[in-house]
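Provenance and format

Records in this collection were gathered into a single text stream. Each protein contributes a sequence line and a token line. The two records reproduced below are adjacent in the stream.
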Amino acid sequence: MYTRKEIWKISYPILISLIVQNLINITDTAYLGRVGEIELGASALAGVFYMAIYMIGFGFSIGSQILIGRRNGEQRYESIGAIVIQGSMFLVVLAFALFGISHFYAPYLMRRIISSEVVFSATMQYLDYRIYGLFFSFISVMFRAFYVGITRTRILTVNALVMAVANIIFNYMLIFGKWGCPQMGIAGAALGSVLSEALSLLFFIIYTVYKTDTGKYAFTRIRHFDIRIIARILNISIWTMIQSFLPIFTWFFFFIAMEHLGERPLAISNIVRSVSTLFFMPVNAFAVTASSLVSNAIGAGKYDEVVPLSRRIINLCYMVIIPMMAFVYLVPEVVLRIYTDSLSLIQDSIPALYVMLGYYIIAVSGCIIFNTMSGTGNTRSALLVELMTAIVYVLAIYILIIRLRPAIALCWIVEYIYWASLLLFSFIYLKKADWRSKKI
């Protein structure tokens, strides 16, 4: 059984890496909050649209990570390199396909669903540059899957730090036109993020070549594209790809609903979303740890440890989340000043911020139990759970936001519905399904 110290030893590098990585989101929002509310709102729409596409590749890496974790638990190390290299090849092809689809069809889609002409224009300025990040981020997620799968997560912290520092510098230069660069505004935020992702990938490659035992994992044996390995990965990953895409796509639907309420509600939602990521980072870090450790435990034949392990990880996550919630509840203005200097925007954002914070009481258990379920390798059932949750969530958005058009703060109640549904469906799976017999 993994002790709390061992769980934390694996979780905290992931957490630190997520914190540093999400400095990119915080930096973009903070910089653009000082450019204008239109840019602030548009970056939310374009950012979530890009994230929905990115999550397709990320979902593929999650399935790969589960497979890597299982092989690591079985001590079949020579199979791991093939998973990473073949998965990277597949993701390069996928990046080209998704780039082409987005380049040709995103303007048409955005034009149909965004009501404000100025918001549409700013959204496309951001997306035209941001979409190039797919070519770098898709390969980076395979390196992340590799290091999480073999439970060697400290390097993620260093990589994320490199990426975040680069993003802060590039965005400052390109958004505001500093140090001889053109003043690009919202387009500069997108280009800065792409450049930081490219630097992050370069770091991963150099570190892996010079600091990782590539012979142990048989990286050097890979010579050509192997469709059999890709098929084996896709047998798990196809479900995690759709499963990862769904929640971000439904979140995009949430922001479209907010945009139809007005430019100020959209700006408030982007600020609250950015604050929400501060809380989702530890939740996601512990959830990723749960998926990896469950996969390793099952690979070692320790089925009875799965549920107690999940419970222990949930308790550790609450120990991190609750003090954070208390701090933001007590001094919301301090946090919101990171994103904007507008006093009226700060005051209008506080009620929505309070509502958002509350749903993390449910989200901690929901996210970790769901990732425990994914770690068992039954990604098809995980997709079904995510699909049912997404349907409930979209219906809630339609009824509570689009039809009723309530105050901004009340719009965030739909998040309670999402996490409660995910928790319920995942809990039922772990109690009732025969996940112990799943072979991958």
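Adjacent record:
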Amino acid sequence: MKKNLGVVQAVYPMPVLMIAAYDENGKVNVMNAAWGMICGSDKIALCIGDAHKTTQNIHHVKAFTVSIADEAHMDVADFFGIASGNEMEDKFERTGYHARKSEFVNAPIIEEFPVVMECELAEVVNTEHLHAIIGKIVNTAAEESVLSDNGKVDPEKLSALTFDQFQSGYYTTGEKAGQAWNAGMGLMNK
């Protein structure tokens, strides 16, 4: 029997995404965002508020990167969610992490995170109930250490973080449970 929990954000898992953008002076800012998803073959949607320093930077510069946080960098990924770029001038610098400019868009790539999508600002959706940044993915790059033999990202090697909105925890991904577009084939001819 199910117990009513009230209004709970009951989507699990949520990605732990590092959103990075330059400000008008070329200074790096990074934020932690769980409310993001792929919304087309070459698009990503980030449901992030307009008050974030990173969001303001994206509006100004029209480009950003989205990195997947992994277990090895959980402490800094969490810090990017705790600290506000609006209140902490040296937020990125105090991590000791390294950024380089993307060769595809005017946005920083944070070297320590193993997978990054480099995006141009495609659209801002701003309604009464939603503020979303839509990015056109122009390139994705990954460290060779997280690639499988077929040249694609291997989730077991990536050890990506997921966010649990029930208990506010971080978990890692990795163990494969089945093959997509195959696990349900037995029901097709029923």
